[in-house]
Amino acid sequence: MFLCVSPAGAPAQGAGKTLTLVVGFAPGGGADVTARLVGAKLSEQTGRAVIVENRPGAGSNIANERVAKAAPDGSTLLVTTAAIAINMAIYRKPPFDALRDLAAVTMIASTPNLLVVNPALPVKDVQELIALARAKPGKLNYSSAGIGTTPHLCGELFKLRTGVDMLHVPYNGNAPSLTAIMAGDADVGFAALPAALPQVKAGRLRALASTGDKRSELLPDVPTMKEAGVSGVDVTLWYGVFAPAGTPRDVVEALARAFISALQAPELKQRLLDQGEEPVGSTPEAFALRLREEVARWTELVKATGIRAD
């Protein structure tokens, strides 16, 4: 799905070449929504046409490879999540190396995942879910945004920490994963707070817990996983921007400044906060360090859990 956002009256190319933001998840998910919000502000501030291109599938690797192989001129960027670090750990032979094939630009924002269930499921809190899953081993299934995404990792960590047996059913993005839960095709799921929040507010999903280190101001009655009695499922989802490796350093730095400037706009900051995201706007160096740290963290977790995508 494509969305072109450019300021009214601006020329098609704006102040430079059209900027394509490639998202490895389906429309409507957290990464997609965030890319569109930031893309619109970028276009408004720079006069440059911005296109959001959805390339879901393979745990976001389709989009990752699309950008890794793009011309390193700063016109094609990847907007992705922490899944890019997880993929480096869970694939025995990853189709690309995020540390080698991409250049970190900036972290946009961070947010927790929510543990949600279909309202018809007879559980009101995490402990009731654990009891039900233990009473019906292998009978409950949980959906995720795809293999290697943070919702998938949250589900596997939840199983590991609680000793329950649930079947994983991956979908291509948060939106179809949540739709499956609402339709009753899946019982449980983890999803980025921005994607799940509207459905929780509307009563179409029941939120049992958050994977953050503190409660969300948007859902103050929803406990953290630790408060709910489950430790070790503290997984923070982040959204970040990458360019193809080989993109000139001055171009990467200019892109980072543009994104940081957009994130400092009061209206965009508030929009992100309203949907449960904490704006960040890091330097390329700080974001590259975060990526290296997370690859190491998930590699350790893969050894402990045995999670594999192939």
Quick summary:
This protein has helices at residues 30-46, 61-68, 83-90, 98-101, 126-135, 150-162, 174-183, 193-201, 249-263, 266-274, 284-305, and strands at 2-5, 19-23, 50-54, 76-81, 102-117, 141-144, 167-170, 188-192, 206-210, 236-244, 278-279. Strands 1, 2, 3, 4, 5, 6, 7, 8, 9, 10 and 11 form an eleven-stranded mixed beta sheet that branches.
Looking at this protein, list some descriptive labels.
11 strands; 310 residues; eleven-stranded mixed β-sheet; D-Maltodextrin-Binding Protein, domain 2; globular; alpha/beta; disordered N terminus; single chain
What is the count of DSSP helices, taking H or I runs of 4+ residues?
A: 11
List low-confidence stretches.
Answer: 1-15
Largest sheet: 11 strands, mixed
CATH C-level class of the largest domain:
Alpha Beta
Question: Beta-sheet strand percentage?
Answer: 15-25%
Supply Rg: 19 Å
Secondary structure blueprint with pairings:
Layout: E1 2-5, E2 19-23, H1 30-46, E3 50-54, H2 61-68, E4 76-81, H3 83-90, H4 98-101, E5 102-117, H5 126-135, E6 141-144, H6 150-162, E7 167-170, H7 174-183, E8 188-192, H8 193-201, E9 206-210, E10 236-244, H9 249-263, H10 266-274, E11 278-279, H11 284-305
Parallel strand pairs: 2-3, 2-4, 6-7, 6-8
Antiparallel strand pairs: 1-3, 4-10, 5-8, 5-9, 5-10, 5-11
Helix pairs in contact: 1-9, 3-11
